[in-house]
């Protein structure tokens, strides 16, 4: 009988760990769904006082939470709110996750306003624990963004280093769209500023040398305001 009771306790403990690790795994997989995250191990440190709880899990009516900041690191604390009879216990469970994911690095010096594409970047795998920033650029964004500032060769490309793709560049001749009532006219104007989709920039009419305001609507195209 004693052996049977111990076996039941052991099985309950395993089920509890499975539920907790599954919650952590799913939370990280969702947070890094764009980075091909591969988890190899999740370690838990359950407080001794909570190990004998019969319903230590993330299954309803219990509630498990991870802070947004926790997901930016490879270790943290899971808070499990466990219904124990008429009371609710808050159990802090420390964890460590071993995982790797895909990151993007510059293959050479990328100057400010240069478009970030597959031509000037390379993807590689890195351990989650080695990253100091998890606001990473996903592969799906390549070709859709430009460098906000200078990015060094071999530099990790993160979201704070990029901005919307530059569609118009200073000094370029671009198409200016003029709308008047039911008429739409096109003319060539010179961009006096860089700009992305929706930006309002200054342009110069080459024939009159007049400075105009225009809103960027496409690649090398802006609507005269």
From TrEMBL:
Subcellular location: Periplasm
One Pfam assignment: ChapFlgA
Function: Involved in the assembly process of the P-ring formation. It may associate with FlgF on the rod constituting a structure essential for the P-ring assembly or may act as a modulator protein for the P-ring assembly.
Keyword vocabulary terms for this entry: Bacterial flagellum biogenesis, Cell projection, Cilium, Flagellum, Periplasm
Record has Lipid metabolism as a keyword: no
Gene Ontology terms: biological process: bacterial-type flagellum assembly
GO cellular component term, pick one: periplasmic space
Similarity remark: Belongs to the FlgA family.
Superkingdom, natural source: Bacteria
Stretches assigned to the Flagella basal body P-ring formation protein FlgA SAF domain: 104-224
UniProt-recorded name of the protein: Flagella basal body P-ring formation protein FlgA
Keyword Membrane applies: no
């Amino acid at each position: 009988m004693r052996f049977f009771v111990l076996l039941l306790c052991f099985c309950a403990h395993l089920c509890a760990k499975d539920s907790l690790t599954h919650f952590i795994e799913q939370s990280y997989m969702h947070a890094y769904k764009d980075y091909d995250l591969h988890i190899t191990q999740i370690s838990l440190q359950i407080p001794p006082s909570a190990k004998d709880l019969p319903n230590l899990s993330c299954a309803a009516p219990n509630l498990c939470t991870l802070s947004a900041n926790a997901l930016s690191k490879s270790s943290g604390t899971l808070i499990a709110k466990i219904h124990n009879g008429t009371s609710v216990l808050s159990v802090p469970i420390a964890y460590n996750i071993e995982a790797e994911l895909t990151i993007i690095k510059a293959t050479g010096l990328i100057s400010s306003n240069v478009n970030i594409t597959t031509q000037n970047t390379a993807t590689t795998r890195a351990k989650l624990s080695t990253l100091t920033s998890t606001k990473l650029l996903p592969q799906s964004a390549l070709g859709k963004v430009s460098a906000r500032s200078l990015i060094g060769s071999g530099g990790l490309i993160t979201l704070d280093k990029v901005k919307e793709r530059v569609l118009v560049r200073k000094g370029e001749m671009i198409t200016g769209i003029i709308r008047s009532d039911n008429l739409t006219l096109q003319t060539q104007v010179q961009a006096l500023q860089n700009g992305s989709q929706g930006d309002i920039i200054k342009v110069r009419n080459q024939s009159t040398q007049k400075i105009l305001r225009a809103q960027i609507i496409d690649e090398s195209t802006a609507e005269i305001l």
